[in-house]
# Entry
Amino acid sequence: VRQTSLELKAFRFAIENSDNTIVITDANRNIQYANEAFERNSGYMKDEVIGKNPNILKSNLHSEEFYREMNEILDRGEKWQGEFVNKRKDGVLFYEKASISPIIVNGELVQYLAIKLNVTEYIKTQQRLQQSAAVYEMIADGIVIADSEKNILSANPSFIHMFGYTEEELVGNDITIINSSDQGGTLYRKIWAKLLVKDHWRGKMDNLTKNGKHITVLLAVAIVRDAKRDIQNYIATYTNLEEIIEMEEKANFLAYYDTLTKLPNRAYVERELDDIFELARAEEKRVAILFIDLDRFKVINDSLGHHIGDGMLVILAERLKKVVGVRNLLARFGGDEFVVVMSEVNDKREISLLAEKILMTVRGMITVKDYHLNTTASIGIALFPDDGNSMNVIVKYADGAMYYAKDKGKDNYQFYTRALSIDIQTRLELEQKLLYALERNELYMQYHPQYDLQSRQICGVEALVRWYNLELGTISPEKFIPIAEETGMIVKIGYFVFEKACKAYMDWKKEGIELEWVAINLSSIQFRQKDLLENFVAIIEKSGISPHNLEMEITERCMMEYTEENLYILGGFREMGCSVSIDDFGTGYSSMSYLKKLSIDKIKIDKSFVDDLPSDKNDQEVSRAIIALSHSLGYQVIAEGIEIKEQEDFLREHACDYGQGYYFGRPLDSDALIKFVKDL
Ligand code: C2E
Ligand code: MG
Ligand code: MG
# Structure
């Protein structure tokens, strides 16, 4: 008995102090005994759990199935082994490897004995290892693990990809396999020296790939030591900086250069100009800004396509570079705008010389694909410090002077002057006031009679828009129509004009005046309205005018733009029954072959060819040629700007069909026209 009692005590001590959790339940699975380890692992005190079911530890992470299977085994009187994820009293999960054995005495199940080992730490380590392994496999950085002799033990896929070696070629090899030769041994010796002191090193360096390519990497090496502080492993990670460097360079390029011509852009000039001005100030020199804008580039771009336009810009950029030279800065500001910054200018003659050279080089024929193209440039010039002290001001003035050069007939250069600044100012003012002209009822219509030159009868009128502003007075359409076109206002104005003209025609009809047509001027900007035809049809129907009494005047320049759509819209007008005439004929880019293809009815000889008739030989020939050509193509001809009898006579004699001009009468408003016709 003594012996047994001693043994039991020893057992009890062992159980009590075991690292394993030991729990004994009765046959109904209520806890009878739990040891110290139970308290440590579960967070429950023994007293709290005696008499309770161990399922107080349930975490809900196991399925019902799991517990059912376990119970089935135990019910059969067999031993169950498995792993629990349980929940401590404080709610924290822990992992237990467990075995539960039924205790059977005399064939009867009396108790259960559960022995459990807390494996939380082990599982967590396991999970961490798995995560590390995944990182090792997936990370974009190259990772190499080497032994204490610097021999590679393993390399991750990114390392293999980055340096181009296979795993077999790497494993067992010295890690210095990827060192680039040109940095000599010194850098590496330094790195190793630092590494051994601090156990880690980090820095940018150059490495060699298998096929000899140098790549810049960010290297981080760390030493892993064992318990005795002996070196166990080297772990090196390589971040490829090539992409980052490339991206930086690209971003820099995109920010400061134009991708098409590879020229610096506006931002580049902005960045540099302060320094350039600074230097000029110190050296008491001038800086000239030449603002170059191509003439009619838009027409080429729109009619031949952007790839032709782009090709042209690239060629011109090359030519300009040669002319401008390396001492000056050439930039593309966007579209067809180039800017030259000419530093160290001594006098204006130098600038004029360069401007002339630029004009000349632009004039030369440009061949893109199969197209032989010609263009010219308009240049505006402003000076530092004469015209201003800041980039913004000088560029603005150069831009303004460029517009002045365009006004002066293009293909020339102009220096900014103070007087010009007033022009720019009034233009801005016009623009502002025009915005509200329609709602303020400042626009109205006049109608200019057109005559049959043979019968000398009035047969139609041209509708002309007028603008009267209280402050500015009467503004000529020559002035405000271009502004309306640039601002897009022309679209609204166009509908206004069309509506008024249709209505006026019907008013005249009511008065018994039946003109053959009312002619309406259309701007190319209006042609860009996708629903132009529909909207015009609606206006026609509302007014009740017959489309046969409408004539659409389209300028020659307009016909060069947006070819496809323009032809479609023109066709639409003619299908309806409207006639179409080409306005300002002879002033634009007329192409004979083009003229033949157009579906039009009439050609309008521009006033400039009529002005010097009949004395000027040249104008005689041009007008005769236009008339002959038109007739041969089956088109009628009208001449505008007839101011004297001799002009009318000449044109009639040369078979011009119609005429319009102050000689016959001035443009009149609708009521005045009624009176005018009735009084004839
Ligand atoms: P345009 O279409 O060539 O119009 C003819 C211009 O020549 C009119 O000037 C007319 O008054 C003028 N004219 C006609 N005969 C004579 C003459 O014997 N002597 C003189 N000195 N001038 C004559 P206006 O009304 O100043 O129009 C100028 C331009 O403004 C027009 O040229 C046209 O391009 C544009 N425009 C006028 N009204 C409209 C409009 O409603 N819509 C559009 N898009 N443009 C318009
Ligand atoms: Mg006209
Ligand atoms: Mg005209």
Q: What stands out?
A: The two ends are 153 Å apart (CA to CA). The mean pLDDT is 91.
